[in-house]
Structures are given as structure tokens and as C-alpha cells.
Amino acid sequence: MIEHLITHINKFCSINPEKLNALAPFFTHKIYKKKELLLREGHRCYEKFFIVKGCVNIFYLRQNGIEQTVDFAIENWWASDFLAFQDGSVAQFSIRAVERTEVLYITADHQLELLKAIPEMNEYFHLLFQRSYAAAQMRLRFLYEFSKEELYHHFSEHFPAFMQRVPQYLLASFLGFTPEYLSEIRKKHLS
Amino acid sequence: MIEHLITHINKFCSINPEKLNALAPFFTHKIYKKKELLLREGHRCYEKFFIVKGCVNIFYLRQNGIEQTVDFAIENWWASDFLAFQDGSVAQFSIRAVERTEVLYITADHQLELLKAIPEMNEYFHLLFQRSYAAAQMRLRFLYEFSKEELYHHFSEHFPAFMQRVPQYLLASFLGFTPEYLSEIRKKHLS
Predict the structure, then answer these.
(1) Which residues, if any, are the signal sequence (chains A, B) (predicted)?
(2) Could you tell me the pTM of the whole model?
């Protein structure tokens, strides 16, 4: 299972393979059933999750009780409430398995030990989070740049497999649409 | 000058002071005049900038020729097009000094050398970018959660010094308002 993570690490930096072989004990392998929660808003966030297989959505509860999806994570992505994870504070987001999802997670305590034992992992997380931050900046640019309909077309073009995979009501939530509006755009797009 | 950066590093992690004393040669100190560009969209991005004193805005050029501000950075923030910096690709954003701005910048080449000489700096950048990414996720939440007027009030409450400091037309751009609409909201807010 850990090989998935090692493959991902090797995309970002070169860490001595012997050290990478010592990674496994710091991580826990877990399978979440479809719709099971990985993290609940308002609770402490002790883990960060590396998605080995599957898909999760990151959401918060609107005042009207509706779940607002702000992001997804699929294979090779990390998901957590990273502020709550880093500070030991209460999570502002929930995370739920969109489908059966297999993860490797690490707790904040285990991460401290990991970074002592294999400080080279800081390089991986540095480059990973620098890229994630940059991607979030690009997403902000898209939100300024595109109308809602253009946003749909942008995601369809750039992430077609992803668009097929995610249930329509979650995609609509993510794009800030009503499900009805999304359905209209899809029909227009297909015709 | 480097003490500002060292103070910031010490907020995130503890690196041996002797090692931190070896930081300076990797950085260049530079002062940008008000309105001077630090980075130009469409050009290569070789540097990342630590703001010692001042304020910059990060923007892109809309198809209609208008500059759309997507973010600001003030003292103790890092600014760059981090994707372009990491990949050596072309910048999707420009960065301009909102006021006279003093920076310490590091080039991608110097950063490679720095991380070889002081690999502990990866820990700083890991925790820094994890936090930046988390802050970007929270900002996305605000964009879903708040109306434009609520967004203005949110920023006024949480970043009052910042709101005073930034010219109105840039703030309007950042909030996605016309300057006229911002002026109306301010009047309502003050009355």
C-alpha cells in the first residue's frame, strides 16, 4: 500500500530508498465506505489523508443546513483541514468518501516522529504544499475569470474523468449551481 | 535585513541559529518603488519574494485589458507565481508594489543551493505552505459563504489595518466590486 505514496514522493524529490522503506510504520491504512465521514466539522482534526484509491469531497455546513462542497480529492491527493491539523484546532470542514475510498493517514503526532526520523520528508511536503497553494491561486483566478457556465466547460475540458466520476449534486454544489442549472448546461453542452 | 526572515522562520520551527546565520548570502535585498513590477505575467518567474516592508498586489490581465487583483501580500508574506517558480514555467500572474516595498528574494537556483546547505529550511517551507494552502481553502469557503457585501464586512473586521492601507480601486478589484459599489457599501458601513 505504501508504494503508492512512495511513487508520489519520487515525483517530487529523491529521498534515499532505504529511508523510504522506513515510512510504512508511521501510516495507517484504512478503507472508508461510500458516504462515510473521514473528518467532521467542529471536531478536532488529528489526521491527514493520502488518497490511495477513491474520491472524497471537502465541505462545510451552510447556515441553512445545506452541505457546500468546496473541493474534491482523488488518487494521489492529500486531504485534511490543514489549518486544524497544523494547529490542533477545530476543523472548519468535513470530509466524506464519495465512493469506497482507501487511504493512508498519518496523525499529527506520528508526523512529528516521522519528520524527526526522516527529515527529508519535509522536502516532499514543501514542494507538495507549494504546488497545492499555487493550484489554489489558479483556482481563484478561474473564479474571477470565468462565468459559472465557463467554469463548467473549463472543468469538463481539463478534468473529464473527474467530471464523470463525481455525482451530479456534488458537482453542482462545487460549481455553485443548482442541480437543475447544471443539468441544463450539460444538455446544452452535449447538443 | 535578514533578521526579519529569521524571526519569521522561528515562528514556524526551530533551526540551529548558526545555520540561520548562514542564510543571508542566498538572498538579495531589493527595494521596489511604488507601482514598480516585481513579476510580469507571461515572463519566466525566477524569484520568490519575502516582503520585509510594504505591500504588493498579485493580478492578471483580463481579456478586456483590465487588471484583476486576486491577492495581496504584506510584511512577512511570501509572494510569487509559485507554480511558475517551481516548474520554471511562464508566470500566469503579475506582482506590483502597491507602495514602496522592501523584499528579500531568492532565485530558484539559489534555493536549490540553500536547501542543500540548510535542508532544515524545507521544514519552514513545508509548514509555511501548508498554512498558506489552508488559508486559501478558507478563502474559498468565504467566497461560497458570503455575499459580496458580507465579504467586505468580513475583511473590514478581520484585517482593518490592511483595508486602510490598500487603495480603493485595488480593494474593489480584489472583492469583485466596481469602485462605485465599494464606495456605496463603505458609506452604508460608516453611517
Answers:
(1) none
(2) 0.94
